[in-house]
Each structure stands twice: as structure tokens, then as C-alpha cells.
Amino acid sequence: MNHPESKTAESEPGVLRVLQTREETKAFYDKIAHVYDLLAERSEQPMREEGLQKLAAAPGERILEIGFGTGHCLVELAKAVGGGGRVFGIDLSEKMRVLAQKLVEDKGVADRVELRCGDATDLPYEDASMDGVFMSFVLELFDTPEISKVLAECARVLKPHGRIVVIAVSKVGKPGIALKAFEWTHRHFPNLLDCRPIYVARGLQAAGFEVKDPATRHMWVPVEIVLGVKSQ
Description:
single chain, alpha/beta, Rossmann fold, 7-stranded mixed beta sheet, 7 helices, 38% helix
């Protein structure tokens, strides 16, 4: 099945659509939860570390991670905010939540971490309740019209001048063979690869964030690592 290109978001021209349902996505990540680190952690870890540095979570802060997966970044965030801070995590997959909960318990930071399953298009947190939001290889899983909804929810829960860091596979740069292969696989085998390259900095700007210190790195495809700041 071919995916039409986006015609709904001028800030993301040419971005492919996502046709997987939430239940299909949830089932996929439940299925691969126990092998996810073997599949992705080594290649994604350097990008996540750079993103955590950009977010610069501080003692006493309240930080939300959207799509926490197996929980490695939750641990680092919990260490950064210390005993006076709080880390919240939301993920679609219950099996990921179970694995992440075990990890934060094993690392001795469970007392400052609160995890739940849910959908980032409707975050279950109060307005202006977070100092920071962290998303790593998550935003590109949402269908194009939903990206603006997710970022609007992030802006809603952030305090004035709150920070957001988004790491995602990107369309920025020259469309090399690897990127074309990535998009071809997404078009023809969405059940195997239902994420696709997006425009991260553009999306954050369109959502009203002030973009600071954007960076483009490379795994085998381009990856944007972008810090955004909420103005008010």
C-alpha cells in the first residue's frame, strides 16, 4: 500500500503519512519490547546522550519523557533531577512500561519516577506542570497531522520558558540512498517500519517554540537533535 505525502502541514512538505493504527503500533512495541535494546539501543544511544545534554535537566525539576521505551533515559533524567525532582514517563506499550519500571527500580531511582501508558496526543498532565519534555525517536511514529497535536500538548504542559528536546529521523539534508530506502520500506512494509523521516526544527517552530542549538547527526539516516524553548 502506498502512503500519500502530507498535504496537511506546510511545515513538513513531502513527509509521508503513517497509516498504522494505535493498536497496531502498541502491539508491535509490545512484541519487540524484550529485544528492543538489541535492535536499537547501540545506534540510538549516542543521539540520546546528546539530547539529554541539550535538555540539561537540573536538580528539583519536573521532566516528562514521551515514549520512554525500556527506560534508559528515565534513569539518567532521574539522576539529574535528584531526590527533590520528579520524572514522568508516558508510553503506548504496557510491556515497555513493565521493563522500564524494573530498570528504574534496579537503578534505585523508582521513588522519583512515575510511569503510565497513554497517548501523547492527549497528555494526562496539568497545564504548565513540567520544566522539560524529552522525546527520542518517537515523534516520527505519529501521523503527520498528529505531530502538531503532540507538540501543542507538550507546549501546554510546559511551564513558561520550559524546554523540549526532540530527537527524530530527519528529512534535513540530501536524500541519500539510505534515506530513500528507509522511505521505500515505510511505503511498502509499514508493519515493519512505520516511522519515517520528518522535519523536527520546522515542526517545533510551527508549534511556537524558539529553536535553539539544532543539530543534524547521522546513524545510517540523518537524525535531528533539537532544543526548543517555550516563550510564555
